[in-house]
Amino acid sequence: MSTTNYIGKPTSRVEGPAKVTGAAKYAAEYNVPDLAYGYVVSSPIAKGKITKIHADEVRAIPGVLQVFSHENVPSLAWFDRSYKDDVAPGGSPFRPLQGAEVKYSQQPVAVVIAETFELARYAASLLRIDYDVAPHDTDLETKRDDGFEPGRGKTGWVPPPKPRGNPNEALKNAVHKVEGEYIHLTQHHNPMEMFASTVEWLGDKKLKIYDKTQGAFNSQQYVTKVFGLSKDDAQVISKYTGGGFGSGLRPQYQLFMAVLASLELKRSVRVSLTRQQMFSFGHRPHTLQYVELGTNADGTLAALHHHALHETSQFEDYTENVVNWSGMLYQCDNVKLTYQLAKLDVYTPQDMRAPGAATGSFALEIAMDEMAYAAGLDPLEFRLRNYAERDQNADKPFSSKKLRECYHEGAAKFGWDKRNPEPRSMRDGNMLVGWGMGGGVWDASIQKCAAKVTLTADGHLNVLSGANDIGTGTYTIITQIAAETLGLPLEAVTFTLGDTTLPEAPLQGGSWTAASVGNAVKETCDKLGEKLLKLAQKMAGSPLKDASYEDVQFVNGQIRLNADPTQAVVIRDVLPASGEKELTVENTMMPNPASQLTHSLHAHNAVFAEVKVDPELGTVHVTRVVNAVAAGRILNPKTARSQVLGSVVWGISMAMMEETVMDHGFGRYMNHNLSEYHVPVCADIHDIEVIFVEEEDDKVNPLGIKGLGEVGLLGVAAAIANAVYHATGKRIRNLPVSIDKLL
Amino acid sequence: MNSFTYTRATAVDAAVREKSADDGVKFIAGGTNLLDLMKENIERPTRLVDINTLPLTTIDSTPEGGLRLGALATNADTAWHPEVEKRYPLLSQAILAGASPQLRNMATDGGNLFQRTRCYYFYDLATPCNKREPGSGCSAIGGYNRIHAILGTSESCIATHPSDMCVALAALNATVRVTGKNGERTVQFADFHRLPEDQPQFDNTLAPDEIVTAIDLPNEDFSQNFSYLKLRDRTSYAFALVSVAAALQLEGNTIKEARLALGGVAHKPWRDSAAENLLKGQPATEETFRRAAAAVLQDAKGYGHNTFKIELAKRAIVRALKQAAEGTQHATEAFKNSNP
């Protein structure tokens, strides 16, 4: 066994010590000299017009530097395209402080800049603003018949496939049928770290921007286009991100505010949002779904109809893939998938962990449970009987698919075979016990990505790529890949990310970072390895003289002949011998389009959940969850497990607690804080088992990586709701499964 | 910044003088609620008088054989105090059901009485609220009122009192010792907090110049048959949707003495003596408990989102009384061993 084989080995976070000692700095922690502070004023009304901002009263307060609003914002970029970021949906992006119109409650309407944060906050509290209030419309329930099919969606959105077979006829003729409506309200990401931007004024319109984001390049592009800056004058840095979950995919308005104030005041400015303001932008949309299923006598799916309607803003058509997954998770020849939006006076929704799929799988997987009961089949047996060997949406084979193994290994670990299918049949003392299952499918994506690697004469490898690590373990897995590729110890490798002066990497999202940055770094390291081999061959008496790159291995700090590993050159000796100070390769990895054309590239999972329900009080405890995941090669089982544990906790949260509740009288979210927007505490979380099913895939990408950011969440909420049904006989189709629904 | 002066009170009478001289004075002890309210611009005191150095931190026996909780004893020290654990375990359980260890380390017993409601509208300056701004209207009535009151409400306010500790204190017949300009007086716990009526801006019956110095627990024994049952949206760090403090004294299976108070359902801890009387002298059976529960909720009124609380409260009362009668405080330990 060699010691520099790191891929697939549990590895602690390389940035862990920096995080636990506080050395890791987040956007609001860069205390640059002469910093001014901004505090955002949010609209109390949902719709209308600002008639007057009494800014002079506030400007008169000593220490207040300026109040920015639509009344005094300088002329900025004119066209919508300048405001469009990498993942902007169709429509016209919201432009902060650039009009008197109020389009949603909590819209930022002004920012007060002052010498201290406390003063800015105080001054903001005194700012009087007059409004002409207009009637608003925030209730999706009133829009059931006003849905429309979106035209052009955002990047990654695929319109539902055309109906296949004859779903209406097949439903009519089905032996067993179920139908139901499935609802969840709006949900907000609420990562631990609040959104903040610290803009350092370097003079002459040159800025260094520390931003909370999931993509430094996306923030840079936005800032340069909106404010007419060159890239050289707008460096964006994002070394650490305290959680993103999609909320940082689009540049948020504090970035706009901080850059605006810095350019206007010619000094460094920080703008941080409050927890309450975390409810003032993107969110998982309130969604109404309808699912209708039918089976033949033998329990094979005869027909499937899945419809979704969700909210969007008045100004952008946010889209996500809600229903498409239902056409590929199970074998079914008669399928109708439909998808609509409705415009409301709210801010544009935004991708939130497993966008669309978390929503769609919640509905489909409860419906599948209902269908299993209606057909008299065990829910696991029912799924196996309808296993999709091929992606029927795309009419392509899967590059790999080990969902069957997920079902089997998950069920075995859980003890599913001991389940009595009868609702209310299993007990633990006075508690009703319920077992339910679910699962899902998610894209295995990869994006173009650049990287630069430099080997220094002392044998240290610097790896550079402008990716982001939102807490998932990117620092660590990239270090592992680079170290293993060039046979160096982990300590000899430093991965630097989160800076627009580095080679360009895609947004951290879509579960594509491991594959994109991983393969880019692997490819770049291989190129450096080839150069290094050439130099090694020139060394006096080199045993590698006639070897090709394929003939050698890089392990334990050496380049060795595969055929005779005792014939080796020490990597650390190569550069000194060649007289080179360092060796550098910069390279852009392009995804291989061939595999995308010929195969369906997806990760899958199967979830088994146990609940214990108090029969009189309706209290539910999710006592066990087993999540079996098939997501290609697992680079680091330790950080990978954490990813899936986090997904399960999120799934429990989605099932049992999360909802942002709108008071439609005010058109305003009322539980806009972490006291009343509930997410689980430790006491809500019990046993969680994560299984990674072996899944080799040489087609998806060279490293065989599928990504883990989202797949672990799929089906968790459904598995829990199904377990609650099994425990109580009560079918909850409206999340969360709160105590009032079980009385 | 929102300017206020900050001073430390050196003696109780000095604190009383400061308070009675100036409307803008607020006492600060643990500050676990007041600082939040100041940050949200709901409380805007012009003077903060820090009372943490007053000699009110001890927990001592009273001459009558009860226990006196100094107003500045922390919630944590109180919950884990050997005498409280032994003689008033209902109080321990109620305190530990609230907040988090960090908050309980800071929060004081006196301060706990002054917690303000967590009504969404009270906290959001963008919406009218009679409690925050008298006369502006109640947004919760007809709005989103899932966490709101079902008992003792008025047309002005349906907010709830958020404390767990106070529910146990109400059940345990505690008295509150207060000092004001005119000297010391005691207030029965049930009379300390008030219903909203048409003045929801007032949470309690204290005069503006008064300070709480101690909470006295009487010499009564409810240490065997008691239960504090708290139902909420997550297992910790959430306010009660409904909580029940139940305590019984039994002779065989007959109820000799009964105490019943509810949290999360009214503007004050909801003690129901009539329901207690229905329990006294009766056998400790589910039937008896159901009658008492029905009596407590007979005048309850739901406002839409919170209507479920009426049924939930009934079931919670029955369960709490059952647990009290059986001497099984927690029925929820079952989850720990969860393998099939």
TrEMBL record, chain A:
Residues 140-152 have a biased composition (Basic and acidic residues). Residues 21-135 form the Aldehyde oxidase/xanthine dehydrogenase a/b hammerhead domain. InterPro entries: Ald_Oxase/Xan_DH_a/b (IPR000674), Ald_Oxase/Xan_DH_a/b_sf (IPR036856), Ald_Oxase/xanthine_DH-like (IPR016208), AldOxase/xan_DH_MoCoBD1 (IPR008274), AldOxase/xan_DH_MoCoBD2 (IPR046867), AldOxase/xan_DH_Mopterin-bd_sf (IPR037165). Residues 140-167 are annotated as: Disordered. SMART domains: Ald_Xan_dh_C (SM01008). Pfam families: Ald_Xan_dh_C, MoCoBD_1, MoCoBD_2. It comes from the Bacteria. PANTHER family: DEHYDROGENASE (PTHR11908:SF153), XANTHINE DEHYDROGENASE (PTHR11908). This is Xanthine dehydrogenase family protein molybdopterin-binding subunit.
UniProtKB/TrEMBL annotation, chain B:
Residues 1-222 form the FAD-binding PCMH-type domain. InterPro entries: CO_DH_flav_C, CO_DH_flav_C_dom_sf, Diverse_Substr_Oxidored, FAD-bd_PCMH, FAD-bd_PCMH-like_sf, FAD-bd_PCMH_sub1, FAD-bd_PCMH_sub2, Mopterin_DH_FAD-bd. Gene3D superfamilies: 3.30.465.10, CO dehydrogenase flavoprotein, C-terminal domain, Uridine Diphospho-n-acetylenolpyruvylglucosamine Reductase, domain 2. Pfam families: CO_deh_flav_C, FAD_binding_5. Coiled coil: none annotated. The keyword Transferase does not apply. It comes from the Bacteria. The keyword Flavoprotein applies. PROSITE patterns: FAD_PCMH. Keywords: FAD, Flavoprotein. PANTHER family: OXIDOREDUCTASE, XANTHINE DEHYDROGENASE SUBUNIT C-RELATED. This is Xanthine dehydrogenase family protein subunit M.
